Amino acid sequence: MSELAAKINRLKKEKNAVILAHCYQNAEIDEVADFVGDSLYLSQMAANTDADIIVFAGVYFMAQTAKILSPDKKVLLPRVEAGCAMADMINLEQLRNFKAKNPGIPVVCYINSTAEVKSECDICCTSSNALKIVESLKAPKVLFLPDQYLGKWVESKLDVVEVITYNGYCPIHHRIFAEDVQKARKDYPDAKILTHPECRKEVTELSDYVGSTTGIMKYASESSTKNFVIATEKGVVDRLRRDCPEKNFVLIKENLLCDSMKCTTLDDIYNALLNEKYEITVDKELSEKALSCIDRMLEVSK
Ligand code: 13P
Ligand code: SF4
Questions:
Q1: What is the pLDDT of residues 49-61, one digit of tens each?
Q2: What b/e readout covers 247-276, taking b as 16+ CB neighbours within 10 angstroms?
């Protein structure tokens, strides 16, 4: 273990802190992380921890969600500027307009959204439980935001639900096209193509498996297949290469990097713990409203 990682671990103990890290983070963060996983797993961990401090190695909406779930704990985001471009694609006014155009329809929001947006939606979801959440509503139509692709992927899996989507997307997954999948099939004919549902419809349709970041990692590690092409952010490939050295993993195209996810370093985590920065706060009334949206999701996902 590096000296810096050892220092972080000592500080963590002294301050009764826990470190949560998303799978897209730089793999070096795993050395100090208590929990590494996808958005659903991390929000479950944030809701259940006994720690006094939660350090979130992730992006703003993740730390904000942790604060909403554990309002009495100190939640720190090591790089306060680490936002999510998709979450920023819809604000409260845009949400209200979307709802006004489609009145009387239940609203599902992806966890990649702000607390303000969550506070006026019926239920939240992540990429690993979106299907289950939409099904649980037992409604013929649902509104889904901000990610149009996750929403339409859910619709394609359910015969009886019309999913009306907002037009948001993740700029990183949006860069993957059908031609990239076709090229990968040609270049790696024995490989399975594993894809995140934030990808375009034509990309998920051409893939062998579609799932969350941890869904992809679980599929790859349990599969008897040896070669894989991965269509999501590079962090997943880095972890797979480290965890399954006997298998081959190729990122579907170059530069699939989320700058916000990649900006956090071990130094930032050390400084965050040492100086207890940057503390994330959420207005009490807003937090309570957003909590019911997240709690409903956690209840359905038990
Ligand atoms: P997961 O739900 O797979 O963690 O993906 C969330 C995400 O968008 C991270 O960018
Ligand atoms: Fe947001 Fe996309 Fe980055 Fe995930 S990868 S945090 S959805 S911008």
A1: 999 999 999 999 9
A2: ebbbbbbeebebebbbebbbebbbbbbeee
